[in-house]
From TrEMBL:
Protein name: Response regulator transcription factor
SUPFAM superfamilies for this protein: C-terminal effector domain of the bipartite response regulators, CheY-like
Domain of life according to the entry: Bacteria
UniProt xrefs under InterPro entries: CheY-like_superfamily, Sig_transdc_resp-reg_C-effctor, Sig_transdc_resp-reg_receiver, Tscrpt_reg_LuxR_C, WalR-like, WH-like_DNA-bd_sf
Amino acid sequence: MKILLAEDQTMLRCALAKLLELEPEFRVTAVSDGGQAQALLREQTFDILLTDIEMPGVSGLELIAWLREHNNPLASVIITTFNRAGFIRRALALDVGGFLLKDAPSDQLVDVIYRVHRGERVIDNDLALQALGDQDPLSDKERRALRLAHEGLSSAQIAQRLCLSEGTIRNYLSEAISKLGAANRVDAARIARQKGWL
């Protein structure tokens, strides 16, 4: 089983790869962010994508959304330290096969990978119930602009990164600020991150 692992923390990425390769059936290719994963997915096929949610550049959820946009049905499992309702809801909407917290036992991770590979969906009941929390008011474009603003980029830099006009970016950020009842873009990003919407 060919597994593509995307995890930005070097120590954890290496430890997970070594742990998974203890399984005779697993062959792991590990990368440090979603952009590197996209590059590999353009050239190779894998059986499972195992990804963190928060990574620099392309996040885990953005990576899975990219797969779906390109009609790639690759089975995916998210491993994360965050059990926020917004993350869980977005993962479910993207038809993620598994959602697991990083503090879960290693044998549970192996079990989830096998089950997702067989076509099952494995999401902890408590996590699924959390997904019934607050509704995410942000559009995908507002979320992308706000995420880049949170990284410290100016409106002009965000516009360049997203290939849009600066005025359009200001509109997206203004809408996000308004929807979240925030004082400014920094406050909006803070609120969105706390909710798991960013």
